[in-house]
Amino acid sequence: MEIKRLEAVIEAILFTMGEAVELERIAAAIEHDVDTTRKIIRNMMDQYDTPERGIQIIELDGAFQLCTKAAMYESIIKIAHVPKKHILTDVLLETLSIIAYKQPITKLEIEAIRGVKSDHAVNKLIEYNLVCEVGRMDAPGRPILFGTTEDFLRSFGIQSLEDLPIVNPEKIEDFKLEAEEEIQLKLDI
C-alpha cells in the first residue's frame, strides 16, 4: 500500500475505535512492522499539528488515539452537551498522586500513607475513570490493587507514567515533617 493509503487506514482505525489503540495492533492491521507503523503515525501527528486542523493524534503509553484539540472545545460545547467537569479537590489530588507514583497499590497502603480513610477519594477517582482496579494482591483477603487509567494520562497530558515529574528527595523529607507535625497537632487537640 502506498503511504497515503496507509495513513487513511490508520486514520480510519483510530477514528472508529474512539480510544487508544496499541501500536502492535495498528501494525498488524496495515500489515507492516512496528517501526514503520510508528514512523507513519508520527508523520501523521506532524500533519495534524497545525492551527488549521481540529483534531490530533496523541500517544498514550505505546498506544495512539485520534482526538479533538483542546483549542476546539469552546466551539464544540456550543453544539454538544456540556461535558461534566470533574473537580479534583486536594484530597482527590493527593490520593491520585499516591496511586500514580506507587501503583499498583491497595486502599490500605493508600490510607497508611495519607493517615486517613480513603474510600470516598478512591471511589470518586474510579467514577472519574482516572483510577481502576488492576488486579488483586496475593495476600490474605486478596485486596484490590489500584492503578491509573488512560484517561489519567490523557487528562494530565502525559504519554506514560515515566513522564511523571520526579519528586526531589529533600521535598519528600519536608512532606514527612509536615505530616508528622500535622499528626501531632491532631493528637494535642
- Class inferred from helices and paired strands: alpha+beta
CATH homologous superfamily designation of the largest domain: Winged helix-like DNA-binding domain superfamily/Winged helix DNA-binding domain
Gap from first CA to last CA: 73 Å
Q: What topology, given as strand order, has the largest sheet?
A: 1-3-2
Question: pLDDT below 50 for ≥5 consecutive residues: which ranges?
Answer: none
Q: What fraction of the residues are assigned to beta strands by DSSP? A: 5-15%
Summary, kept brief:
The protein has 189 residues and is of the alpha+beta class.
Entry keywords:
Arc Repressor Mutant, subunit A, three-stranded antiparallel beta sheet, 6 strands, 9 helices, 189 residues, alpha+beta, 2 domains, 14% strand, 53% helix
Walkthrough of the structure:
This protein has 189 residues and is of the alpha+beta class. It is 53% helix and 14% strand. The chain folds into two domains: 3-77, Arc Repressor Mutant, subunit A; 90-188, Winged helix-like DNA-binding domain superfamily/Winged helix DNA-binding domain (Arc Repressor Mutant, subunit A, Orthogonal Bundle). The protein has helices spanning 3-17, 23-30, 34-48, 73-77, 90-102, 107-114, 119-127, 150-156, 169-188, and strands at residues 21-22, 55-60, 63-68, 105-106, 131-136, 144-148. The strands form two sheets. It has a three-stranded antiparallel β-sheet with strand order 1-3-2. Helix 2 (23-30) packs across helix 3 (34-48) and helix 5 crosses helix 7 (119-127). The radius of gyration is 21 Å and the shape is elongated.
